[in-house]
Amino acid sequence: MKKTFISMMMTASFAVMLTACGGGEKTETTTDTAATETSAAVDTPAAAPATVVDIAVGSADHSTLVAAVKAAELVETLSGAGPFTVFAPTNAAFSALPAGTLDNLLKPESKADLTGILTYHVVAGALKAADLKDGQKLKTVNGAELTVTIKDGKVMIDGANVTAADLTAGNGVVHVLDAVVLPKK
Q: Domain FAS1: where (predicted)?
């Protein structure tokens, strides 16, 4: 059951990453002027992306995360019902890892290690920034704990800065990190 949950969490994380990276197709649509004016007059909020994976796929800054989620076969899991809170490292965060680390993690023989790292970025439940408290411990999908630090109004997760918060999807929420956080050994 734990393995299934972790698998589901990783799939959901991957789906978010895929969405944020712009994996969707573009379609051309036409509208008439009256319909456009009518819809502009009604202030309707845009629909939230369906999954946390969709958020990642839709972001050019998360293509590495999306690729990692795919390599770990977590897309389906993270596309599940959730809810999930995903702390999503940017491409720059992955680039800051020691040389060769990412390439090694993306190898098929490193799938378990990659999955462990990715699931360390996922927490069950939909935690908004306002729900996070200084010193709070968050149990991750991989079973380890992340530590929340809030200093001078800035939120950090295991020392990584939250650079964008509360990106809401139908199955959870995504917070963008400026570093890849690694489980303690």
A: 49-181
pLDDT tens profile 76-132: 888 888 899 999 999 999 999 999 999 999 999 999 999 999 999 999 999 999 999
Instruction: Show the tokens assigned to 22.
Output: 């712009």
Average pLDDT score, the chain: 78
Q: Which two tokens stand for residue 87?
A: 């702390």
CATH second-level architecture of 2-24+48-177? Roll (2.30)
Element (H, E) at 7: helix 2-20
First to last CA, the chain: 23
3-state secondary structure 26-74: CCCCCCCHHHHHHHHHCCCCCCCCCCHHHHHHECHHHHHHHHHHHHCCC
- 181 token code pair: 């956080």
Q: Which two tokens stand for residue 23?
A: 């994996």
pTM of the prediction? Answer: 0.73
Place of tokens 């008439």: 32
| pLDDT average, residue stretch 14-35 | 35
Q: What are the residue ranges spanned by the domains of the chain? A: 2-24+48-177
**E strands within 51-179?**
84-89, 122-124, 137-139, 145-151, 154-157, 160-169, 172-177
161 contacts 96 by C-beta, under 8 angstroms: no
